[in-house]
Design goal:
The structure is a homotetramer. By secondary structure, the first copy, chain A, is of the alpha/beta class. Chain A contains 14 helices and 13 strands. At the A-B interface, helix 3, helix 4, helix 9 and strand 12 of A face helix 3, helix 4, helix 9 and strand 12 of B. Chains A, B, C, D: This is Aminotransferase class V-fold PLP-dependent enzyme.
């Protein structure tokens, strides 16, 4: 593995120079006033990226998975019923967590490559006249399949069904890279991590709670200490944490939000869309198809690519690593061996993206797939030549 | 707050240059073979520092507090009874966590400044003939009071009582700085973090499980996902994590254990003892006393210093920060306002320690305490002139 | 300009992560024993890269240009005659320096794109029966044109002519990337810098002196202080410098030589040859030609590419920087506007090289040149797929 | 030697965190527009620190010694006469450089510990009716002895003598730390380096030229290429360098000047004065004397301390390094073995200074000198308690 090549895993992403430096700080007393000048701007910045003006926001010193646990344990009670779809490894894992917490999961199985079945959810919610479903879980962007789901539509469906369940959204691989509207979509808990759109190393679980979710936390009885938003809120009020925070990552997060907001969220999203379009153009040029079954489901942060029947897609990832020192993502769960993934989120230039596409071509050719060298690159180049964001990247 | 002054909080500690660099890495694919070359040496190094040859060791990407949660949730069942002493803020908080998990805590209250009441514990365990106590919780080093407790003695007492409870030990502010013997002391779960003796930023919870504790995890029914050692074990077997690890911190931990073992654990402990002795000599020269009530309880990683009656000790910490840009620790909980703390763990030279002592003198004089300038420094210098470890530090 | 894209200027090169860290050190007393542990391994490492076992080696805290001045001022006297060819901007500049020093230059003008005229030099030297020529200047690799000259052949010619002039060689953009044999080629002074094959930032001028060149320094009367090898030698004997050295860069140089030697010089040279061959394959696919007029002159560290008549080649460099945030080299002097340059030396992977080639294609297409997108990439991919050094790069 | 202790050599200084990061940059094309955004602010910042509004300023990628060579070679002709005093190692070395350049030096020998003999210089200049003296050399701060000379007074003396010689000033260890007024003092060439008041690593020679000095460069015939201000000026006009610049150090210099100007030059000077006063108070408490013979000569950047007759002062430096991992400066030249030096310039807090003083006390006691432990610390503490700049340092 080369430390000089960009990575093309769907997170952690490539880290901009300035963010690496912001994370690498000498020890700062986390109970000193200096820490307050990091904590509050970081929280404020996150809220702007979430488009969250109501409720509360919390940052835990842990991986993003902890955000799922925060969402559940602060809002639900043992035995509560939740509604969730399983359309990829990450939605699968969140459901598994629910079960471990003793929640009853109404699970809707969806072929991997499809999105959250909004109409079916609406139907189920309509039928739940007694309101036994306490929360709806939604994975905004399935990292395993490169499928984006329609959270705004889900909110409309919930409203149409007149159902009062909480809407808990996993935005780990979407927030900061694709449009996400905490307020407008009526999200009750949004979960993300530091290592995707925020371009940081892993180590921060970031969660937004609506006022309704905060209210639920007052009575929720699932056990929690580390993930307690009550403790966290009390800490913030004293410019501190209930335990030792990750000061360097917080400082990096502060800068990351400044960078995203300085670039402009719409510009950031457009940049991701452009890079992703180039990758998809390459996939088409190779005669392949994304795992996502229709264009409206295409993710702008990760593309899972179906390889020919009978070919073990994981060989691509392995060969790329050992032969060219480059990291791609393997297929997981139901699509293991059937897809490989190109992550294209965070801080990425056209030139970086092209090096990934070019390397993927060599790898597939080496492994005997019928790939015309340069074909995917040429298709992506055609897209990138008409993009407009390179100049902005220059500032980093 | 100056970024150039050493910090004298009882963790996170000053970070050696080489460790900062080891933590600050470009993104490495945590599912690539390269990660295995970080993960396993880090685990092996930790085991050597813990003096653990049996059972299993886990590293969670979270603050040390998460280690407490790991210890409880993997070994206990709702309603289980545990025995614990409350002799400082951190033992207090661990008890609080037990209660939130629905455990029944047999709590022994001990004046802050005293150690774990081994004889009283033995008595309680003897009386528990039915074995209702499932775990004994012990804080090896109370960071709030600078008191070290006798874990070896506790193990002897448990054995003498013929009690089969698990021995769960919080070694957050002792492990890596003071002698800790996982095997020899019969520890069942040892908990620590990255930001103390390991000289890293916060962000890793490190736990050792004995075979007995691992066995308990097979039936323990407290809910867990993020903190599940089962998931973690499965991850390690595949050279991976059940979620995204903190690769940079893991790489730093690998180096930290190499540095500790290269220096020699006994030398590391002797260095901490020497630095601590100098600080205590300074305290005596100031006409003050440690919070720890007797010399056998003196911690070699942190000294809590009682200030004169009627004086708010927190002013020292505040004035040191704003006037001299230096960080000390405040008193917490029962001793808030009554003590201030000098952390002296991790990577610290005599010269650094003297700068802290000299600054503390200026601060106390500024605030009207009756301190002879230079007196504490002179007392510490007398200690440090006879130490022998400076040369080793030179290599860092 | 993006800090995330690799650079394709012919030096300073992309800096490997480990070298950046080795250069970024806290202040180290340059008169302490610690400095000796940096200085001598750095010097020894350089000697191995130069293949120099005789004479002396010096490292000046200055840009490589200072190496030229060191070569001249320590070996020559005002009015001395030197023989030099002008076949690019850097040979031109060295001649200019000679003239400023009051040396008489016998200048042979060679079309830019050609190499050093060995036969003509031999003839001139044969004619110089009285030995009025004191030194022959040779630019091993003309960075402006991407032309490598035959130093071994020049030595044979000098010997054949029976001429005793010193052989002063500019190896700035060859040493560490292409084979260079100080001893075997009878080089008297070799000059290089830190920012090319050694993969460091600019700031060190590195020079090797043969015993004959050292002997010449005993009587040479050109003025020198900063560049005095006598002062430098005295410093080294005391593990020090005659003035303040660049400790961080020296520490980086020590590591750089370790890395080059660990990879193996032959492997390093083969890697450069492979990357270069890929670039030249791309150039051919674009229907263009290198500035170097014949394959034996092709440089493995930089390729200067002739653009079509009437097209200002500098636009490529400008557009690449402003549109795609990528740096290429402009044409200089006689070939300004006629060539642009792709630097491919130092630490470079196939994937990085492909990103440069792909970007160059977009740039040229944007500017209206008749380029088939992907064509150069495909040609380079074909070369890189058969290379073998990617695995070694993985370790970095 | 510890990398964690502050250094107390008189340069290179301790480097603030932010400056280390500013110097540690990925490769930036030094011919790209991005470089212009570093170059010009760095030059502008230097001019403000020099208090230079007229003439020109140049930054060479070399050690400060190169600045001396720049001053001489751009303004003088072989055989020219210069006036200089020898009152320390650095004035001695500059004179030596003059002699190597073939200049005639009218050398005034002054006991080391005294300043530049202004009255005697005035007399010599008055006697030079034909104006044969072309330049007066003055060392503003003799780093070897800790003596500051009166440049303003020298200018008045030159004017009083009606002499038109150029005034060349070595401000290497004064500029940025003590008041320096290029314009007001009529300085013709000011020389400094990056590694003192600018708090950077060594590697930049910084020179200011008055219009008169620039005019002299038009006819000066000493040979120069690397140090040519003409070449440098042409480079700057094209946003570039005549050869490869040290981009990282330039970027650091830009930040360093921003930091100095944000703090305020007067505040910076007051901070140095305060720290120095504390060191001198410690020296007095030890019963010792500075090498500088009178208070008006005391340097605020370095104190050379005379040790008792018969004691080899170099043992202090050696013992401090090997026993406590701390760096002080040895005596040089005429005062070798008679003094040791404490450098106290650049970015230094009270706490850091006290660690140096406390360590020096231990060292001297270890070596058998009659030192009361804590005495110097107490004296310095008394000074530092009344200082006011600690808060500002906090921001760094």
């Amino acid at each position: 593995m080369s430390l000089q090549n960009p990575v093309f895993i769907p997170g952690p992403t490539n880290i901009p120079e300035a963010i690496r430096k912001a994370c690498d700080v000498p020890t700062i007393d986390h109970r000193s006033p200096l820490f307050a000048t990091i904590l509050h701007p970081a929280l404020d910045g996150v809220r702007k990226v979430l488009k969250q003006t109501r409720g509360e926001t919390f940052i835990f010193p842990a991986s993003g998975t902890g955000g799922w646990e925060t969402a559940l344990s602060n809002t639900l009670n043992p035995g509560d019923r939740v509604l969730a779809a399983r359309n990829g490894m990450f939605s699968h894992k969140w459901i598994d967590m629910c079960q471990r917490f003793g929640l009853q999961v109404t699970q809707v199985d969806v072929p991997w490559g499809e999105g959250l079945p909004v109409a079916q959810f609406e139907e189920i919610l309509r039928e739940d006249e007694r309101g036994s479903i306490k929360a709806v879980l939604a994975t905004h962007n399935e990292t395993a399949t490169g499928v984006v789901s329609d959270i705004a539509g889900l909110r409309r469906a919930m409203d149409a069904a007149g159902h009062g369940a909480l809407l808990l959204v996993d935005g780990v691989s979407s927030i900061g890279s694709m449009d996400f509207r905490f307020d407008a979509w009526g999200v009750d808990v949004a979960v993300t991590g530091s290592q995707k759109g925020f371009m940081l190393p892993a180590g921060l679980a970031i969660v937004g709670f609506s006022e309704k979710a905060v209210a639920a936390s007052k009575t929720a009885t699932l056990p929690r200490t580390f993930w307690s938003i009550d403790d966290m809120r009390k800490g913030y009020a004293a410019d501190a944490y209930p335990y030792t925070p990750s000061v360097g990552l917080m400082n990096g997060l502060k800068l990351a939000t400044e960078m995203l907001l300085a670039e402009g969220l719409d510009t950031v999203f457009a940049r991701h869309a452009r890079i992703a379009e180039g990758v998809r153009a390459a996939v088409a040029a190779w005669g392949m198809k994304p795992c996502a079954v229709s264009p409206d489901l295409y993710s702008n942060t990760v593309t899972a690519i179906r390889t020919p029947e009978g070919f073990n897609a994981s060989r691509i990832v392995e060969h790329a690593a050992t032969r060219y020192g480059m990291a791609f993502g393997t297929g997981l769960g139901d699509v293991a061996g059937k897809v490989f993934r190109i992550g294209h989120l965070g801080s990425l230039t056209d030139a970086m993206a092209l090096s990934g596409i070019a390397t993927a071509e060599m790898v597939m050719a080496d492994l005997g797939l019928d790939i015309t060298l340069g074909s995917g690159v040429a298709a992506a180049q055609a897209v990138y030549r008409h993009g407009a964001a390179a100049e902005r990247m220059a500032a980093q």
